[in-house]
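Task 17 of the worksheet. Students: predict the tertiary structure of the chain below and write it out as structure tokens. Keep your answer in the requested format; marks are given for formatting as well as content.
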Amino acid sequence: MNEFSSWMQSNWHALGTLFLQAAFLTAAVWFAREILKSIRAFQEQIGALLKLSLTGSLPERHSATAAAESFFANASPYWLTPAEIPPTPAPAPEPIEIGPSRWALARHNLLVWLKTPMHTGHSAPWRRALKWLQAPAGS
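Model answer:
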């Protein structure tokens, strides 16, 4: 026991560094696991919302279809297998435009920009300050 205590006294810095590295490694592994858990929960929520929006009904968690026996279907209940993907709906009708078109607004904005004066009668404040600094002190 005396040899161990003398070794610990002579190598306390290395032993402390080892403990700190182990603590940082433990914290990093814990933090990574928590991040991966939250990402997985987020993916499942998005998958459930996607499945709900595509099928229009509540997803069943335990379906016994042949396609659900794949690896990905067993990993999460929200994976869409090829048999479960509904056909794409008909495209929505075009919205009715109210007011001027995009091109008419762009043309109007261009004309307004061209009609504005390029230079006002007053100089910019930073130019006046620069002229004041460059002027001789007596004038």
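Marker's comment: Residues 10-86 form one domain. The chain has a mean pLDDT of 78.
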